[in-house]
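Practice set, problem 2.
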Amino acid sequence: MKNLCGIDEAGRGPLAGPLVVAGVVLFDEISGLNDSKKLSEKKREKLFDEILEKSKNHIVFKSAKEIDEFGISACLKSSILEIMQNLEKFSDSFLMDGNTNFGIQTLQKEVKADAKIPSVSAASILAKVSRDRFMDSISNKYPNYDFNKHKGYGTKSHIEAIKKFGRSDIHRFTFKLKALGESEFGVQKTLF
């Protein structure tokens, strides 16, 4: 697949922090690429810099406030469209990891592409490392939540912190928690 732009996201499911979507067009081969979740943090960090050197890429952040206002699917779709617009001069096709193309006719989709297609693996790594670095960078600003440890995902300790301190301005208010007795009426979905 010549000049394929791989697209993947990190942060679809967390209770706090941004959604990060990355698009990558690789110009050189990179060994060791895989789904970012299957790589150690050290390996992801090492590959991150190599991917930046050997690709054209575009990374989009959508804040928790944007996710609350527009919904996760709309944020994903607008991020993908921004990536396609920014990388169209380098790519003749776009492939998203997953089972939906969000109604974008020119976007291909493939389940587990992040483990099989190098440019999608690279996008997976850029998205995850970018998001993890962001959550690490804000951790000191929100000392009650330990974002550097769980990156905003719904771990037991994170849910306990929300019970004790409530949500911060970096949390997603539309992601309701059964553990807090919150119902899903008028929200996207209930987690945990």
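Problem 2, part (b): a different protein.
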Amino acid sequence: MTKKIGFLGLGHMGGPMAANLVAAGYDVHAFDPVRAAQDKARADGATVVAEASAAATDRDLVITMLPNGKLVLDLYAELLPVANPGTLFIDCSTIDVADAKAAAELAVAAGHRALDAPVSGGVAGAAAGTLTFMVGGAEADFADGLAVLEVMGGKVVHCGGSGVGQAAKICNNMLLGISMIGLSEALVLGEKLGLSHQSFFDVVSTASGQSWALTSYCPVPGPVPTSPANNDYRPGFATALMTKDLGLAANALAANGVDGALGALAAQIYARFNQENAGLDFSAIVTEVRNRSNQVGAE
């Protein structure tokens, strides 16, 4: 069993993930530039190091959870030279497929191994250790990293070669964004027609319009008590992150010649909403639909 792990990026997702590794008995050296994240990781039992490079020194496996591809590539340039030969690098960030492939190529060229392993499941899943990991990379490397990933996730799927894990994540979140917008439009239409949220839920949750967005993450208060709608739309999965992921999906649609009208439109809708609501959960898009509908009705 891999014992020595480096973990870089201790935010809302990375912090709980690192904590679960510590709880499972792994020796975790953790780094994050934010003091609050350092303090939390230290309280969770991780060894907090002062420099990013120290988190990759004398480790068997290094995990990164970062906001974008540029940061991953920049950090790899710092980490790869100090890591032990053959270190397994697992990037759990959600980034462009091209960046994921470039990061893997850099790792291999430096004598290491690499997996892209973005996640789904949000902050609650990170805390509970029930994330879904979508993994790209070589079979042997996947096998070596599986035990560690299973500590942090309830489901780990090897999707294919380098970059394919990111492809799975982008496709999943594009569908989720489209679903949430469609659900929000249907809910607001129901409101206009006199249908209560609970009646809508009771019918649609067991009918052909059923979706995860409705049954697990209902964007209006009441029907699903654990959804962010019942907590003033505190994330959860922030609008800023959904906007980023839909932007990646829109770029991939264009780059690969896919007629993805709904994906492209979802990216535009969330980009507009993100301008003033980046910190709200992405399910708060229902408020945008409602507000803009009221504006139309007043014209």
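Answer key, part (b): The CA atoms of residues 90 and 115 lie 5 Å apart. The radius of gyration is 20 Å.
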